[in-house]
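== Sequence, structure tokens ==
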Amino acid sequence: MAAITLISESQAKEGNKFYYLGPQSECRECRLKGVCFNLEKGSMYEITAVRDQTHECAFNEDRVRVVEIRKVAQRSAVPKKSAIEGSVITFQEQECGRMDCANYGRCRPCALENGKKYSVIEIEGDAECPAGETLVLVKLF
């Protein structure tokens, strides 16, 4: 069975991706909030199908459309010693002030939570680190 949620009509296109940032206070009284609140905060989702149903929405400026979604793995840079495909790791952002680094966004991804457990589903290869850390690029789920 496909997971569904509601998203603004302007964003409701198959293949679009979005981060779920959590429930909004404007949505507390909405009769459809269960459809929107069934997602995992901080996770990225991809729209796999757009359905014909639309609804009024107090939070969005336009109507919202029912979409089918799937959770998407997140890319990150992690210490090589903890990157074992199939293992579960506790994610920790890399301490780094090198915003000019090509991998800065992978070392400090906005969608992954410090201290939360993630499964390493794929190792993509070594990540260059100007600070001298031994890191690899991985996909976490």
User: Anything to note?
Assistant: The chain has a mean pLDDT of 92. The beta strands are 3-8, 17-19, 44-55, 64-72, 74-79, 88-90, 117-127, 135-140.
